[in-house]
Amino acid sequence: MSTRPITAAVDGTPESLAALAWAGREAVRRDAPLRVVHAWQWQPHEAITVDRDEQAAWARDALTEAVRAVTARHPGLEVSTDLVEGPPVESLTAAAEHAETLVLGSRGHGAVVGFLLGSVGQQVLVDSPRPVVFVRAGDEASAEAAGREVVVGQHGTPQDSAATLRFAFEAAAARGAGLRAVRAWTLPPLYAYSPGSLKLLDEAGGLEPYERKALAAALQPWRERFPDVPVTEHVEIGSAGQVLLSVAGRAQLMVVGRRARRTAVGARIGSVAHGVLHHAPCPVAVVPHGVGGEA
After folding, report:
1. Could you tell me which residue ranges the UspA domain spans (predicted)?
2. What is the CATH number of domain 1-139?
3. Which DSSP symbol is given to 176?
4. What three-state secondary structure class fits 253?
5. For the segment 230-240, what is each residue's pLDDT rounded down to a tens digit?
6. How far from 251 is each of 71, 86, 151, 155, CA to CA, in Å?
7. Which of 35, 62, 118, 266 is the most exposed place for a label (fewest CB within 10 A)?
8. What class has domain 146-295?
9. Are 116 and 108 in contact (CB under 8 A)?
10. What whole-number distance in Å separates Cα of residue 73 and Cα of residue 77?
11. 1-139 and 146-295 share one CATH topology?
């Protein structure tokens, strides 16, 4: 059994309850405990006559009801709860530190950039030291039916994507599912062709064979570690986000890496993770680079 729990954040909304249901199934699959966290913060408002104790009671009741539902579906599951009063971002980020995976609800497709996850979800994603899975309201267990793959995006060197590939292989193994590893590539600008890079491309036989060899090299240690996971290697020209979304319809889970950066206007995630989170129809796992990536 994993020593770290699968942790789900709940607040009574449909998307958080879908996240909890997904987390419960994942905990059963991985033989891990489930931790359910409700982070709330009392903010008095002159137009609302609810005091702090009443709001705390609502939060406690929402947590109790959520746990009752998940234990009814999984009676043998080890479940713990945590009712936390404080800023949601800080509370959930702290909860993630002790989790195998943090699972959050997502509102669904958003037309406005930055609206989909909300400020709390996006900030937790940037700050979390552990993988974060986003689950949409209406997600069904039937979407995990046989034949649906775990899809993972691979980029860069084997070391660059090791943490992402590890998470994806573990998820596929726990589900008895196939894994589709996607590596997208684009034609580099002319100034990128240096004598050294041209030599590497010549040795590989061209751009696409080079990309195929790079993907195979990144997958090799994980294929050896998870020999029962069937793997489809998918190399395609195009932007990584577009290529991943083109195969999202066959996925029960999509896994991407995350390298967050901070700017003058706040924290930002990479364009690939951002695009997939906004448009993929399945749950999306975002894995920080460097988290448990050794094969």
Report:
1. 4-136, 150-288
2. 3.40.50.620
3. T
4. strand
5. 999 999 988 99
6. 27, 36, 6, 19
7. 266
8. alpha beta
9. yes
10. 9
11. yes
Supply the DSSP symbol for 188.
P
Residue with tokens 């579906």: 73
The pLDDT mean for the chain works out to 84
Cα-to-chain-centroid distance, residue 101: 8
For the chain, give every domain's residue range: 1-139, 146-295
> How many CA atoms within 13 Å lie on the side-chain side of 280?
33
Residue 177 corresponds to which amino acid? A
Torsion, Cα of 59, 62, 68, 74 (10° steps): -100
8 Å CB contact between 39 and 62: no
Residues paired with 147 in a beta bridge: none
CA nearest neighbour of 259 among 160, 134, 119, 181:
160
Alpha helix ranges (H) inside the chain: 14-30, 52-73, 88-97, 118-127, 162-175, 195-204, 207-225, 240-246, 271-279
Q: Please say whether the beta carbons of 175 and 167 come within 8 A.
A: no
Give the integer Cα–Cα distance in Å for 266 and 270. Answer: 13
User: β-strands 179-185, 149-153: how paired?
Assistant: parallel
Highest mean pLDDT, choosing among 88-92, 180-184, 268-272 = 180-184
DSSP per position, 145-210: -TTPEEEEE--SSTTTTHHHHHHHHHHHHHHT--EEEEEEE-PPPGGG--HHHHHHHHHHTSHHHH
